[in-house]
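Quick review question:
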């Protein structure tokens, strides 16, 4: 076997034991890694059960890597994580960069699955095929960056570390998982799953080589990609990849402001009124805010940066965090508090997107008198910097009644505070909407409302592709749509790019590197994959693998309680001002798009996967 190891490590922290499951080449060729292997293993490990408590011992959490992980390939360092979502219903798949994926591979495994609940807080240590269960009592309650530094100091920095903060320990429903001190698997609340198992951290190290069928071919395609990338950076430093290299995803703030795609004040507008918002101009970000490159290993795109504005912070906050904890909560002109809020979430272990959405919802409720200060004994308005910082702490640490209520998830908060707060919700099944305006990008907005991974902006190409014939041609798509349309052609485009993105998640590859039109051509990607694994897959095979990942996740998502969201009424209200003024989604277009989507996906009129579809994908 090449690329993969065919070994899965399954650890039961209740009994403090482990086993290694061996998979043959047929299984590996079918499920490969990442998203698809996560789903296959999740189904196997829950052993026929249909009701899984996300915080119960029976809920496995799975970390899967890809066939090129650990092989010094640019962008092949992602790790996929799947479990039941404490924040929502059904399973959720989250991803992160860093070194955790390659470290699992170097320890000799394609994936790591954890079940059970430990009696005491613990660090799970995996060193090649030996597993240790260490007491983590002294780390419990510790801020995550401090805990990471202590672990590395004691164990050595050749370990890659996944950890949770106090929010995960306190079972906050939108707690996240941090990898090293600067990579995050943010969505779904999977930090609370580790918290429920009393796992403060997982430290992995190994020294096994990753064996490729034709390492020379992999190296040479990777090297060529690096050379072409460097030349393109010189020729077009202001291209999308050039922007990522120079400014990280922070640079997307200005791009999205200009197009009216920057959520502002609870998604009520797509652009702050003041073009000098967050006190920077595009030309001065580099000199004042963005620090050095801090990439995932072997990545030459290097979107990750240190923070020049706040060198003591663990990293420069990413676009999603700065948008949702910036303009979206009224901090358009207070970059200092915005970055402080992002850093606090990172240290306490909260997903920045859902945290920002919760705060924005509360603010909108108070400003529109759906909640009043008198009966609540509390109020918060857009831009209330001090209260924002306090509220984040109170949620993560469950410090007061309101913090405790919000820590239990938005749905419980709405139940308690009343239906008059519902019009201000920007959530799908309990998960906050990411920082791309659904009304401006109706294809993305449509995808937000559908499982298997609702509210994930990284599961398909964004709507711009509809007006780019060259990109459509690469996917053999012979359809016509428009960026602002939600028609059947848009759904056909979505379906195709969803399959491609799911294939990349299955290979655990970074979409900034492997996204359509980014660093490598499709031919180069297939060349690298086949040289790494020894498979002889075509691009059509790869797309089928991507769709298999979607269909299997969909089957599990529905079986475990997940549902597609109904149309959200705010999507039908026109954006009132700014560059995206007038944008909206028509409910009738949405209903038609849903019927067409179910049909082309091979689902019945209720969205259930038809048995002939399951058969087609052999799942
Ligand atoms: S582009 Fe960014 S996220 Fe992707 S591998 Fe490189 S540094 Fe990591």
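Suggested answer, residue by residue:
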């Amino acid at each position: 076997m090449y690329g993969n190891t065919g070994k899965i490590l399954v650890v039961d922290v209740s009994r403090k034991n482990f086993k290694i499951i061996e998979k043959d080449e047929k299984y590996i060729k079918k499920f490969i890694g990442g998203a698809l292997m996560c789903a296959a293993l999740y189904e196997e490990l829950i052993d026929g059960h249909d009701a899984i408590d996300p915080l119960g011992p029976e809920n496995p959490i799975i970390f899967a890597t890809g066939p090129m992980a650990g092989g010094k390939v640019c962008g092949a360092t992602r790790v996929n994580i799947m479990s039941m979502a404490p924040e929502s219903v059904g399973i959720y798949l989250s991803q992160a960069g860093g070194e955790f994926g390659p470290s699992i591979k170097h320890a000799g495994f394609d994936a790591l699955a954890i079940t059970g609940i430990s009696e005491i807080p613990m660090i799970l240590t995996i060193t090649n095929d030996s597993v240790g269960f260490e007491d983590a009592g002294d780390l419990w309650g510790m801020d995550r960056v401090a805990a990471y530094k202590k672990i590395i100091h004691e164990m050595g920095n050749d370990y890659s570390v996944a950890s949770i903060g106090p929010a995960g320990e306190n079972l906050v429903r939108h707690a996240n998982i941090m990898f090293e001190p600067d990579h995050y698997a943010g969505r779904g609340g999977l930090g609370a799953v580790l918290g429920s198992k009393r796992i403060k951290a997982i430290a992995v190290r190994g020294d096994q080589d990753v064996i490729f069928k034709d390492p020379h071919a992999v190296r040479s395609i990777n090297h060529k990609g690096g050379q072409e990338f460097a030349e393109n950076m010189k020729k077009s430093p202001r291209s999308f990849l050039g922007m990522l290299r120079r400014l990280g995803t922070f640079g997307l703030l200005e791009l999205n402001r200009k197009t009216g795609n920057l959520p502002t004040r609870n998604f009520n507008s797509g652009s702050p009124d003041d073009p000098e918002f967050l006190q920077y101009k595009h030309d001065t970000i580099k000199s004042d805010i963005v620090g050095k490159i801090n990439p995932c290993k072997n990545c030459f795109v290097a979107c990750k940066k240190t923070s020049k504005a706040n060198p003591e912070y663990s990293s420069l906050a990413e676009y999603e965090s700065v948008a949702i904890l910036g303009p979206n909560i009224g901090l358009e002109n207070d970059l200092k508090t915005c970055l402080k809020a992002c850093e606090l979430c990172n240290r306490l272990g909260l997903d920045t997107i859902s945290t920002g959405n919760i705060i924005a919802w509360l603010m909108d409720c108070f400003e529109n008198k759906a909640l009043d200060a008198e009966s609540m004994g509390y109020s918060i308005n857009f831009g209330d910097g001090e209260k924002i910082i306090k509220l984040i702490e109170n949620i993560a640490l469950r410090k007061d009644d309101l913090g405790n209520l919000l820590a239990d998830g938005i749905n419980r908060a709405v139940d308690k505070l009343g239906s008059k707060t519902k019009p201000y919700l920007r959530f799908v099944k309990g998960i906050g909407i990411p920082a791309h305006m659904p009304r401006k990008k109706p294809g993305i907005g449509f995808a937000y409302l559908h499982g298997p991974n609702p509210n994930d902006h990284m599961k398909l190409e964004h709507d711009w592709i509809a007006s780019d014939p060259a990109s459509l041609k690469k996917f053999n798509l012979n359809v016509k749509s428009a960026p602002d349309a939600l028609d059947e052609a848009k759904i056909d485009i979505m379906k195709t790019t969803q399959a491609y993105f799911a294939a990349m998640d299955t290979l655990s590859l970074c979409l900034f590197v492997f996204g359509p039109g980014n660093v490598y051509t499709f031919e180069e990607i297939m060349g690298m994959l086949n040289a790494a694994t020894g498979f002889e897959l075509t691009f059509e095979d790869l797309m089928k693998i991507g769709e298999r990942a979607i269909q299997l996740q969909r089957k599990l998502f529905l079986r475990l309680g997940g549902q597609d969201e109904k149309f959200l009424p705010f999507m039908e209200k026109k954006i009132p001002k700014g560059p995206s003024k007038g944008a909206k989604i028509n409910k009738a277009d949405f209903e038609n798009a849903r019927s067409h989507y179910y049909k082309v996906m091979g689902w019945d009129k209720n969205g259930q996967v038809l048995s002939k579809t399951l058969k087609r994908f052999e799942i």
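Why it works: The first helix runs from residue 25 to 31. The mean pLDDT is 95.
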